[in-house]
Amino acid sequence: MSVDRYRSGDLYGLMAEYAHVEDLRSAALRLKIHGYQCVRIYAPYPIPGLARMFRTMNSRIRYLLISPIVFFGGVTGALVAIAMQEYANLVSYPINIGGRPLNAWPMFVPVTFELTILFASFGGVLAVLVLNRLPQFYHPVFNVERFARASQDRFFICAEANDSKFDLGKTRALLEKTKAVTVEEVLW
Questions:
Q1: CA distance to 42, 135, 156, 188, per residue, from 151 (Å)
Q2: For the chain, which residues make up each domain, given as ranges?
Q3: Does the domain made of 3-59+141-187 have the CATH classification 3.30.70?
Q4: What is the spatial distance between Cα 185 and Cα 12, in angstroms, rounded to a whole number?
Q5: pLDDT tens digit string along 25-78?
Q6: What CA–CA distance (Å, rounded) separates 38 from 15?
Q7: Under a CB-based contact definition with an 8 Å cutoff, are residues 40 and 59 in contact?
Q8: Which contacts of 106-109 are long-range, i.e. CB under 8 A and separated by 24 or more positions?
Q9: For residue 8, how far is the Cα from the chain centroid?
Q10: What is the value of pTM for the model shown?
């Protein structure tokens, strides 16, 4: 692969395949020792301890990020409910019932509560989908032919090209020093 192609963003990373979980553990530890952070591990079952080894890249959902979105969704729902009811009762169809004021707040409570919950829940669901980049119909690791065995009996580790430590030659040499069955380039 030429350096120009690597720099243009066509390379997603390098993927190594392992037959045994111990080999995967040692490769993950070696990558961690060399300072790699953008590493994804694929296995047919959860492997204790490996998830904490690298920063979790899939957890874009943070309470500090989701909570304001849900809060502002709820506030928007409450404001929409109050504005809608004010317009309906004062402007569009004012009816004087028993001398009560047209915009008595107790009658606004149920609709305001319901729209607050509705908008907050929609905000939360949309935030989860957007922050997790869902639905994701394509991922570059599916370009590796042998990756289909990741859900059966093989273990894979992918060092991503967007890592600050990633260098095509050095990373390949590092992965080949482990007991990898194959080391392949993952292209977009």
A1: 8, 20, 10, 21
A2: 3-59+141-187, 63-131
A3: yes
A4: 8
A5: 999 999 999 999 889 999 999 888 887 777 654 455 566 678 899 999 999 999
A6: 12
A7: no
A8: 108/81, 108/82
A9: 24
A10: 0.67
